[in-house]
Amino acid sequence: MPQGRPPVVPEDGLTTRARRTAPVLAVHTGVGKGKSTAAFGMALRAWNAGLNVAVFQFVKSAKWKVGEESAFAELGRLHAERGIGGAVEWHKMGGGWSWARPARPSAQSRTGGSDADHAGEAREGWAEIARRLAEQRHDFYVLDEFTYPLKWGWIAVEDVVEVLRARPGRQHVVITGRDAPQPLLDAADLVTEMTKIRHPMDAGRKGQRGIEW
Q1: CATH architecture of the region 21-100+108-173+185-196
Q2: 106 pLDDT higher than 50
């Protein structure tokens, strides 16, 4: 797409402005590193444009911290105190289940809850997001690691796609995680698959502060 120009302009009756301001559903999937990092980068742009940003993390651990969370908290404070950028909210939508799903439905996760407990918490998290979309509460949503509860059947993919397709206004949504289901990919405007070529862990190196978190 040279100079940001689309190769084909559809005959859909829309103006250039209408297409440019259309809400975007993006999915970052694949086995490579960088899915969440890219989503947070997009959120940073949204914040700078004055959009109301909300991050909903379907996290690996309830105590898990990422550097972006602290950074966006500061950006939210900057907006509240000086009116710079946009408002920011950051939510952890679960009890700290692991994306390495227990082998048996009855198994206890390393964080202490059962598979059924975590499934219920994930569904509650999605219900809250769906309510906010219906209310047009935010301008830019990051649903981080959201593909995992979809993959495991904790949340119905069909329901998610229906809500996302019907969302009102100009609400942008970015979803991250491996193994994104095909109906979600089909509904998305932007799909990026991260492909791993090489990773430091291949050489036995552990994750580093400032790189992985």
Answers
A1: 3-Layer(aba) Sandwich (3.40)
A2: no
